[in-house]
Amino acid sequence: MPLTKEQADEIERLRAEKTQTLRATVPALEELLYHPLPVLDHGFVRVVDYMGDDGAVVQAARVSYGKGTKRVSEDRGLINYLMRHRHTTPFEMCEIKYHVKLPIFVARQWIRHRTANVNEYSARYSILDNEFYLPAREHLAAQSETNRQGRGDVLEGRDAERVLDLLREDATRNYDHYAEMLNEGADGKPADPGRKGLARELARMNLTLNLYTQWYWKIDLYNLMHFLSLRADAHAQYEIRAYAEVLLHTLDRWVPLTAQAFREHAMGGVRLSATALKVVKRMIAGEKVDQASSGLQPREWRELMAVLGREPAAK
Amino acid sequence: MPLTKEQADEIERLRAEKTQTLRATVPALEELLYHPLPVLDHGFVRVVDYMGDDGAVVQAARVSYGKGTKRVSEDRGLINYLMRHRHTTPFEMCEIKYHVKLPIFVARQWIRHRTANVNEYSARYSILDNEFYLPAREHLAAQSETNRQGRGDVLEGRDAERVLDLLREDATRNYDHYAEMLNEGADGKPADPGRKGLARELARMNLTLNLYTQWYWKIDLYNLMHFLSLRADAHAQYEIRAYAEVLLHTLDRWVPLTAQAFREHAMGGVRLSATALKVVKRMIAGEKVDQASSGLQPREWRELMAVLGREPAAK
Amino acid sequence: MPLTKEQADEIERLRAEKTQTLRATVPALEELLYHPLPVLDHGFVRVVDYMGDDGAVVQAARVSYGKGTKRVSEDRGLINYLMRHRHTTPFEMCEIKYHVKLPIFVARQWIRHRTANVNEYSARYSILDNEFYLPAREHLAAQSETNRQGRGDVLEGRDAERVLDLLREDATRNYDHYAEMLNEGADGKPADPGRKGLARELARMNLTLNLYTQWYWKIDLYNLMHFLSLRADAHAQYEIRAYAEVLLHTLDRWVPLTAQAFREHAMGGVRLSATALKVVKRMIAGEKVDQASSGLQPREWRELMAVLGREPAAK
Amino acid sequence: MPLTKEQADEIERLRAEKTQTLRATVPALEELLYHPLPVLDHGFVRVVDYMGDDGAVVQAARVSYGKGTKRVSEDRGLINYLMRHRHTTPFEMCEIKYHVKLPIFVARQWIRHRTANVNEYSARYSILDNEFYLPAREHLAAQSETNRQGRGDVLEGRDAERVLDLLREDATRNYDHYAEMLNEGADGKPADPGRKGLARELARMNLTLNLYTQWYWKIDLYNLMHFLSLRADAHAQYEIRAYAEVLLHTLDRWVPLTAQAFREHAMGGVRLSATALKVVKRMIAGEKVDQASSGLQPREWRELMAVLGREPAAK
Fold first, then answer.
1. Is residue C92 within 8 Å of D117, Cβ to Cβ?
2. D303 vs chain A: nearest CA distance in angstroms?
3. What totals of helices (H) and strands (E) does chain D contain, helices first?
4. pTM above 0.80, yes or no
5. Is residue C312 domain-resident?
6. How many structural domains compose chain C?
């Protein structure tokens, strides 16, 4: 994730200008404001703005004239209560804005979360940089044999080599051809004056899905947590999960009480179906239950046993 | 709009605490942060938080590493361009949060704008205050005779008196009965120990639609302008328009370049239909056009003439 | 819920016109199409249109060229899988439209669900009917002493009588004054020719919150279930729950496999926090756990014990 | 757009099954239900379901018990009125669902419209087909020299040849390598038993942005028109405009009165800024106005002259 000197300078300039404000401010988040937090081989997440803090959640829940907060212990209790009972609207009262650099195939998963605002770098208007994602060795996984949308063992030796070669060569060649079709020199004039360049909006179709794009992404706290509950989850594809984990780190800094409640009730919690709840009650009563007598399908049974830490569920 | 001493003190405390921030800050908006701006007889609008400024619109449009802004003249030009060509997403990158006190019948119109976040004071949980809206004399209008959803002449003399008496007496009586049914004393104990109070969530149904409620309302800049284009418009009911005008005032302070472009392209602009455009072209060519030859329906014709300042359109 | 003869006739006309379609059709839902299903004393829910069926969920999940369905058992399995793993988008592919008549205070809770389309009867444009909600005796509850937003015991005897009298008299008087202020006769002319009527948009503010309004409400299947999971829940206010239960009945008819999965995973299921899950694991292992050793707050502990059917949780 | 025999058979089966319904039905749309309407070289649009018709707009606007419609002329008038005055909610009461096959770079523009429901064919779960978009000769345009996001002249001769060769070869090679990395035979077993295949969710990153994907896309009538006003516009990229034009054709069949009003007020209409309106008034008054005296920027001036048909605006 090398920034150009110009980019790094712009960030430095932003970080040099402090102003005074009457708004709620979060020093722990200000510390990393504007800094790029690296993700994958060339990606990053930058917090570029935020609105509100844990107190703003409390303030909105109470529709108060002032801060709404009383003591930390009371705020913590209220935030836990809101989370537990799915009173989601007070969490919508905080907002955060990120600048993210990410591979296009990750961007395509990400954008499916519609309750957010997005401005993406335009490849109709501008020329994309030559940076693409190559998985690290330890993430070069085979297709799972049990889960149609999962990964199995890591590829090794020549199998891995071959894949990395193909990905690198194809992305490189396709970018080179993209540049050739554009035919734009550094000075904005044709690189080859003897021919016309293809329109940017057309040339981009030759690029591969691992090329990096970037966008501004703004979302409220409730929807950020919803995104994280799906994308920081073990079932999410590794590449988007890598981003979700960095976002989760910024959540901890921004709204520590909310983040804690989120880990307790959403990330670390589980949902039991009506039938699964019956099974749990029987087990607590000391009864031996097996899949056949549980009323659960085999796959549901394995998932429940995994949740209860009693045996691993096949994926 | 009398605040209690406790409420005023809370606001003073908030305004006394300045902190430092690296975020974009708007001094002209900070000046009125937290202060209640009066609307109608007991209502108000308070700006309680904001995110971004004109520069943030530019920054998002350019997906920049730094501020994105260059010179004011360039920013102004870009913002005008975005507004003119309906590139709305950069305007979604700013956010503002209000605390609003408003009559319930106004709240019912307002809430129809769904792309916003709301936390309303809960009458299931709490007891509402005894404050209701009474129109000022000059807004006590008769039903329009030409527009089924408009106002006509102002009522006068005994007609006006009678209406105000009815509104005042009914709202007062209904509130008194609400309090009687609740049967809650100031100390939280039954006012009349001999009987049980009705549940708050039921008692509230006796209140009239002019009673004041309040909420926190958070919205992005694009959707705020969409709200204003409908609610600061002459066709909007006066009571909600009174709120829209105060919001418009906060817009001017918050994002002056955007507000100017909004007034130029949305508030002060017009939309012409295909047929109306043809009429305009013929008129520019010096042709005399009347309704019969215009291809427009009579009402459309009157609306177009009004837009062109050629004769008043009946409402 | 007495319909006028004219309204009943309109419904009969609609039910008399069958047409042929190539679209997915659900006979069990067609049976009750357009019929008003009564709710509360004067309200109703009418299904006025729908799009898709259980098969459409399967079809979307498979992005298929045909129906997507195979056998009922496979469809059931897939729908359960989607529900269990929160793959919500296939459920968004079905849509339903209702005509609902409901008290204004219920409408105000209902409208908080923003992911739906609404057209409400306009009191700016039209005159509202004189129908208001009076709770049945068995729903006339006192304020709960343990839950600030709940109900306690039912009021009895003279306490109940007094409340019903107040609600009835105030609603009646306020409506009469509304009509007086409007001053519109049945023929559209002034009832009292000696004075001007107040604008409809103003006169309505005198009405009470238990007056009935009506709207068209359209929502996709996923968001309908989200609405039901909150509003058919025991914590919801009785009056909106009465509507949710009728909606739930239409869900059963419309998409029986989805409805079954919804009852199994959402309505009948539970969410356990990370700490609650630890408690459950210890209990299954045969350990005695009490609140003090559980790591849960007293209220959380009571809620968990209630879920596990071990002792009633105080509300 | 060759369908496989299996796909064509599935469509035939769907079209063979008529059922009776009480819902509003649109014969002109039923005629093309399920049929693929070709777009670009391999893409299509299929209408797979719909809800409502012109009458449903009227019905919702009137919150009626029956059809709401009276005579065609009245319905037309009401629909025009709603469109002209931006009463958008009645148009949200109709819904349509499409199955679309489209290049990934088009899908990336399309998905930016968030107020719709989408289920995309999953390349985590399944293997994509080997079909990619190659522009027809007449669409192989050079970069515009005046508009940074537009097209200029069409490429010719060897320039065009070279571009088409590059696009074809790179897409073909990258797909072949995708298949090689997957290493899946037609029978689901490894094509080369000596090595492990790469996970589908990873292999896909080697594909080019002109590869075809497909999705189910469901949207309400209001938002469909909003999409069309942006994407059937001359400023939209040709490739997405090709889809928008087919959607527009389905709109004409589905809701002819609404489609007509949409063409009159949105597609064929114009928006004038406050300053542009002043210019128009002066021109109608017979005054000579030029850019310098207009108060408009040069670009705005050119755009206005183009709208008024007085001279071509440079793009």
1. yes
2. 20
3. 13, 9
4. yes
5. no
6. 3
pLDDT score at A1: 57
* Segment D6-23 mean pLDDT: 93
Q: Shortest Cα distance from A5 to chain B (angstroms)? A: 11
Q: Which amino acid, residue A263?
A: R
> Which of C257, C226, C266 lies closest to A271, judged by CA?
C266
> In whole angstroms, what is the distance from residue B291 CA to residue A246 CA?
64
Q: What is the pLDDT of residue C271?
A: 95
d(CA C136, CA C86): 39
Residue C294 counted as domain residue: yes
Cα separations (Å) of D134 from C222, D43, D168, D289?
Answer: 38, 11, 7, 47
Q: Read off the pLDDT of residues A18-50 as tens digits, 9 standing for 90 and up.
A: 999 999 999 999 999 999 999 999 999 999 999
- On chain D, the residues whose CB falls within 8 A of the CB of C22 are 14-15, 17-18, 30, 33-34
Which is nearest to D98 in space by CA: D237, D262, D247? D247
Q: Are residues D69 and D151 in the same domain?
A: no
What's the pLDDT at D13?
Answer: 92
Give the nearest chain D residue to C14 (CA atoms): D66
| C-alpha–C-alpha distance, residues A288 and A310, integer Å | 13
Contact B110, B215 (CB under 8 A): no
pLDDT at A315 > cutoff 60: no
Residue A123 placed within a domain: yes
Q: What is the CATH number of the domain that holds A52?
A: 3.30.1360.170
Q: How far is CA B7 from CA B29, B49, B108, B178, C205, in A?
A: 21, 17, 26, 24, 28
Residue B197 resides in a domain: yes
* Cβ pair C124, B149 in contact under 8 A: yes
Selected catalytic residue, list D231, D253, D263, D302: D231
**Alpha carbon separation from B203 to B214, C141, C209 (Å, rounded):** 18, 10, 10
CB-based burial of residue D112 (10 Å sphere; 0-12 exposed, 13-18 middle, 19+ buried)?
A: middle
Mark whether C96 and C228 lie in a shared domain: yes
Q: Domain residues for B157? A: 137-206
| Residues of C in Cβ contact (< 8 Å) with A84 | 273, 300, 303
Prediction ipTM score: 0.94
